[in-house]
Q: What sequence folds into this?
């Protein structure tokens, strides 16, 4: 059984809500950014994704190597920047 990589988005109440899953982080981020683009193209938030809410993957919390991590918000980060930063935080 393979472990899926899940991208969570932080809700307005601070809860981490699972939004996208894929076999690896790169695929999950691609799905997230494509979903955001499609929502914008159609003009409806049918996937319940937000460009302005921070994203999170397991291992990015303060229990890891880095005690403080700045939020990665899709509106301010390209897909490539987010992938590189998350991989660095996770030590990959």
A:
């Amino acid at each position: 059984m393979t472990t899926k990589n899940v991208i969570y988005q932080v809700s307005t109440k601070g809860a981490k809500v699972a939004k996208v899953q894929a076999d690896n982080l790169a695929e999950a981020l691609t799905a997230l950014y494509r979903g955001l683009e499609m929502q914008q193209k159609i003009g409806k938030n049918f996937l319940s994704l937000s460009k302005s809410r921070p994203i999170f993957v397991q291992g990015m919390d303060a229990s890891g190597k880095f005690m403080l991590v700045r939020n990665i918000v899709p509106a301010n980060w390209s897909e490539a920047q987010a992938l590189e930063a998350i991989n660095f935080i996770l030590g990959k």
Summary: The mean pLDDT is 91. The beta strands are 5-10, 16-22, 55-57.
